[in-house]
Amino acid sequence: MLKRIVSILLLTCAGVAVLPEPAAAQRQTLNFTLGYFTVRGEDARLSGDTLVENHNFLTFDFKDFNGASVGAEWLIPIGDYFEAGAGLSFYRRTVPSVYADFVNADGTEIEQDLRLRIIPLTATIRVLPLSRNSGVQPYFGVGLGLFNWRYSESGEFVDFRDGSIFRQSYVADGNDVGPVAFGGLRFAGDSISAGGEIRYQRAEGDLDTRFAGNKIDLGGWTYQFTFGFRF
Question: Is the pTM of this model over 0.85?
Answer without folding.
Answer: yes
